[in-house]
Amino acid sequence: MTYPNTFRYTREHEWLQVEGAIGTVGITDYAQNSLGDIVFVDAPKVGDTVEAGKVFGSVESVKAVSDLYSPVSGTVTAVNQELVTAPEKINTEPHQAWIIKVQMSNPSEADALLSSADYEKFIAEETHA
Amino acid sequence: MVTKTVTVTNATDSPGKQAPFVGNRSKVSSHISQNEGLIFEKSSPGKKAYRLAPLDVPAIDPHIVLGEQVREDLGLLPEVSEIEIIRHFTRLSTWNYAIDLGMYPLGSCTMKYNPRVNEMVARLEGIADAHPYQPESLSQGAMRVMWMLQECLKEITGMEAITLQPAAGAHGEFTGILLVRAYHESKGNPRKKILIPDSAHGTNPATAAICGYQVQNLKSNSHGMVDLAELEHLVDDETAALMLTNPSTIGVFESEIHKIADVLHSKGALLYMDGANMNALVGKTRPGDFGVDVMHLNLHKTFSTPHGGGGPGSGPVACKKILEPFLPTPILVEKSDNTLTFNYDRPQSVGRVRMFYGNYGMFVRALAYILANGPDGLRQTTEDAVLNANYIRAKLEDVYELPYKTPTLHEVVFSDRRQSRNGVKTGDIAKRLIDYGFHPYTTSFPMIVAGALMIEPTESESKEELDQFIDAMRQIAREADENPEIILHAPHATRVSRMDEVAAARKPVLRWKPDASSESPAPETAVSEKTPPLVPATPAKEY
Amino acid sequence: MRYLPKSPSDREAMLKEIGVSTIGDLFQSIPAEYRLTGDLNIPPQMGEQEIVNLFRSAADRNANGYASFLGAGAYRHYRPVVIDALVQRGEFLTSYTPYQAEISQGTLQAIFEFQTMICELTGMEIANASMYDGSTGAAESVMMAARVTRRSHMVVAGTVHPEYREVLRTYAQHQGLTKHRVGYGADGRVDMKALEAAITDQTACVLIQSPNFFGVIEDVAAIADLAHAKGALLIVSIAEALSLGIVRPPTEADIVSIEAQSFGVAISYGGPYCGVLACKEKFIRQMPGRLTGATVDQNGRRGFVLTLSTREQHIRREKATSNICTNQALVALMTCIYLTIYGKAGMRELAEQNLAKTHYASQTLAAIPGSKLLFANSPRFNEFVLETAEAPEAINARLLQQKMIGGLPLSAWYPELKHASLWCATEQNSRAQIDAAAAIIAGKHVPALAYV
Questions:
Q1: Chain C environment of A42 (Cβ under 8 Å)
Q2: Is the pLDDT of residue A39 over 90?
Q3: Contact C440, C399 (CB under 8 A)
Q4: Closest Cα in chain A, distance from residue B444 (Å)
Q5: CA angle at residue C205 from C150 to C211, to 5 degrees?
Q6: Which of B128, C108, C364, C434 is a Cys-bridge partner for C266, taking CB atoms 3.0 to 4.6 Å apart?
Q7: So what's the pLDDT on residue C450?
Q8: Which of C148, C150, C308, C310 to mutate to test the interface with A (most CBs of A within 10 A)?
Q9: CB distance C41–B155 less than 8 Å?
């Protein structure tokens, strides 16, 4: 799967899509692949604040839990309700199945994230490590 | 011994090639496996499995006593006859593997023989019927059993004080760390963190957290042991204790244990020992002698009380004198006239961790086990447990990768590194072992070994059973090279095949409902062949 | 040693295969200074007969053959023999936690049935596979409520079993939870005015017991309203689970914590028993303990697995919902068999017998001059508080001479209840026992063992 070059990426394998002051957050194909079948997404509530680099939720497979790290800081404006009943969307369409939308308090934080090319390089290194 | 070859029907034959290796299962053959629905599916109004004695006092209208609190209906509780109950649960039982059927080499679980005399004495009238609040004058027998067990366990561990109250190992950890905390509080500072090696059981960090401590991870060195330099670096005035499993989860005795204790004690920190692996030490060495301040025991591991499909356990906590004032209330004391009494007046106690006195029935069983062994039997037991593990190690290390070459005691940990080149992982080998008539070992634990196979045979296995196990493991290793498919879809010989755990977790069905067609998966009769094979789940510890 | 399946020559052969000459060589990793050189100082090896005799003599020094009116968290109910016949099958007795589903379907299906029965009994949507006991279950419920609500204040009824409250205190002390204890009124139930005042918008939960420690049934619906009005959860602890055969289930609760010992589990001097948590399905992610779920195998055949284990310590480690690992599986199986034996009709019939015996006992004992039934007009199941002219200890001493164990004196826990004791009458208490106890309390002469 290709990593959209319009997205930015974290080293913890989240992606961020920026539209104005709203950032949309999901996890990458690489992340879903290493987690396996996702059975549950623990997301914050609308109105909660998230902080760049801090845990905002988790995704679970049958026998593993992975924390989710927010790429940016801000306030949660939307949570993807579809994932409540169909968490497998993250497996089938990782780059469409967003988890939260954030009203960014400091949009410049996105600049510090990886580009798609850098992210692909990063995961290539992780795989070989 | 009758040896029977069982042909596996779905082994893939590729034309033009020699048929792939399918193994020769000498231990098992298929046995009667009956279909049996849920008990609710057998229920029919009017069937009964009870008859009460006639009421010898006037009956009373429940509404007079309870008013509007009367329950009108008991919902879906079953209505069946006695023979149906016997058959139902007997049939279910035949779907379980058990120690009584064969070797159960779950690492860190110590699945040893559960002597039947233990069950008999725990059910004696006067013991099974003793009420926890009956007068102490009429409980001296029950209390004496507790006292004898306490004395034996103190001697076995080399400790000075003990509580039998905790209900299981994790509950013992909780109690032990509460003692640590109370001790530090009595010195003015509860301290902030507990050190836990990366090889530890998951209960250790979970316990530290519920006792209000931060968990600090301690990396193991290349021998799988505590890295002393790292320990010295991490221990400071805010370290409350190190929670150490000794021998460790790879079966290795911490040979520098006295230095570990010294490092901790020099900073005022304590050494907690997780006694899960005590079956490697009983009668050969004593934690109290090598610097441990507080530890728990698992009576359901080392001392032969039955695991019962997941419990009950019992997790006594033994400690040094410095921690004695903090033990849970009540404690048992012997009076000058040799009678026993419970002392509740313990101002420094951490409080109760359980109502009454603990899982008393397990005390009876554990004491019966200790008495059946005596000092010589316990020592021989430990020696045999270590002998068995080392025998397996010697007989399998040429086919399975041994990540730590350090000498091991009661268990041995291999990795699936060689087999995983053919896509065969520890969880798959474990499932294939079922076809050969053995319960799997512990998979994917400890976490310091990628793809771990953690094997603890215990002392209860004869040389013949061990040889069959070794033979099975060697055959599976060959299958992994020549016919990995057969392993990836194992087990083949069981009543049910691999379960769809993903579906179970995504749409949990945790109880039966009468409209089963929409709520829960189809009963036995509707067997569809279409469900695709499952991808093996991300490995996690299974023990 | 008779449990060890090896001959000396087996051991020799195995040592040779390993490549060492003595067993001592395998223990070289233990520093010499810590190796034991002699025997442990414990009793010598005993034969089976000696062991049985030893425990028989211990049993004989207990209250063997006494009539008893004790309850207070450990209830004397008849145990059908089928229970022990089944749970002593090696396949149940000697198996581990059912992690390997393909060879553990027996245990898994039985747990699934158990979970279903607990849901039916409590009116809750889900139930777990068991906790250690009622006291730790209540404590775990409170911690669960704190996680669900993200609040840290708890309100606890003073009519919850005192030892449960002690355990709760131990569990809560390092969780940053603050506690408010609410007393009881003249009716022996939670003081509703005090309760209403105690619940704030920081309250995570209200913990009550019903039937409470005095045997009185609480007004669960009204208490639930007070808790829910402030966004707090209601936890109902049930120590006498047989009450559910006749008492309306606490459906208004958010979490129900049961001690299921009454369902065919031997009293056994206080354990092992069987705690179990049941709750609304929406709290499932915060529920501690194992859960069994239904699913299908690769061929579409129904089967059962342990599920939602990401909540548990072996995966989530320090972030787990609880550190619980081993639970009370075999005891849960006993209760499952018991509930199957009595079933829908028998549970009701048995509960009605307990109600009748208790009504008779309470009326008979209260009729003794100088005696009084406390909380007389409140609904109760099979326990009652009797106030006597004499100190209960003196009465009990007289009863003991006639091989009877009287009620539990309450003043140690409730100093205001001076001369009061907690009595329990079950289907195990005959009318003759009750009449004899009344006569002895009244100071009449009763011929020895006449009540049996």
A1: 285
A2: yes
A3: yes
A4: 11
A5: 155
A6: B128
A7: 52
A8: C310
A9: yes
pLDDT at res. B11 = 42
Whether C40 sits inside 8 A of B527 (CB atoms) is no
Nearest alpha carbon to residue B238 among B189, B191, B195: B191
B342 C-beta neighbours (distance < 10 Å), count: 14
- Residue labelled with tokens 């036995």: B524
A-B contacts at Cβ under 8 angstroms: 30
Please tell me whether residue C209 adopts helix, strand or coil conformation.
strand
Closest Cα of chain C to B29: distance in Å?
A: 15
The two beta strands, A55-60 and A40-42, are antiparallel
Average model confidence (pLDDT) across chain B: 91
Q: What does the pLDDT look like over C267-277, one tens digit per residue?
A: 999 999 999 99
Contact B355 C134 (CB under 8 A): yes
What is the distance between the alpha carbons of residues B438 and B111, in angstroms, rounded to a whole number?
13
- What tokens were used for B538? 């991300």
On chain C, the residues whose CB falls within 8 A of the CB of A62 are 309-310
Model confidence, pTM: 0.94
Q: Which residues in chain B have Cβ-Cβ distances shorter than 8 Å to A92?
A: none
Do residues B427 and B542 touch, judged by C-beta distance below 8 A?
yes
C315 vs A40, A42, A63: nearest CB: A63
Q: Do B539 and A62 touch (CB under 8 A)?
A: no
pLDDT of residue B6: 40
Alpha-helical (H) ranges within C238-391 are: 313-316, 329-366
| Element containing residue A89 per DSSP (H, E) | helix A89-92
Q: Determine whether the interchain pair B538/A88 forms a contact, defined as Cβ–Cβ distance below 8 Å.
A: no
Residue B283 half-sphere exposure toward CB, CA atoms < 13 A? 21
Flag if A64 and B538 touch (Cβ within 8 Å): yes
User: Which of chain B's residues have a Cβ under 8 Å away from the Cβ of A40?
Assistant: 505-506
Phi and psi for A121 in degrees, rounded to 5? -65, -40
Pick from C15, C127, C329: CB nearest B308 = C329
**Which among C209, C215, C171, C169 is positioned nearest to C70, based on CA atoms?**
C215
Spell out the residues 6+ positions from residue A93 whose beta carbon is closer than 8 angstroms to its own: none
* Shortest alpha-carbon distance between residue C200 and chain B (Å): 25
Which residues are within 8 A (CB) of C100 and not within 5 positions of it... i.e. 6 or more apart?
B97, B430, B431, B434, B439, B440, B542
Cα distance between residue C188 and residue C446, in whole Å: 33
Residue with tokens 């939670």: C190
pLDDT band at B522 (very low <50, low <70, confident <90, very high): very low
Residue recorded with tokens 């069959």: B468
DSSP B161-197: EEE---SSHHHHHHHHHHHHHHHHHHTT---SEEEEE
Residue C201 burial (CB < 10 Å; 0-12/13-18/19+)?
exposed
Q: What angle do CA B60, B62, B63 make, to 5 degrees?
A: 120
Would you give the end-to-end CA distance of chain C in angstroms? 45
Closest-CA distance of chain C to residue A85, Å: 13
pLDDT in tens, B358-399: 999 999 999 999 999 999 999 999 999 999 999 999 999 999
**Is A40 part of the contact surface with chain B (CB cutoff 8 Å)?**
yes
Contact B540 A37 (CB under 8 A): no
Q: Are C154 and C275 in contact (CB under 8 A)?
A: no
The residue type found at B392 is I
Contact C315 A42 (CB under 8 A): no
Q: Which residue in this structure is represented by tokens 């179970």?
A: B504
Q: Could you give the CA distance from residue C318 to residue B245 in angstroms, rounded to a whole number? A: 17
Query: Which positions ≥6 away from C165 have C-beta within 8 Å?
Result: C156, C181
Q: Is C315 on the interface with A (CB under 8 A)?
A: yes
Confidence of residue B7 (pLDDT cuts 50, 70, 90): very low
For residue C253, the model assigns a pLDDT of: 98
| ipTM of the complex as predicted | 0.97
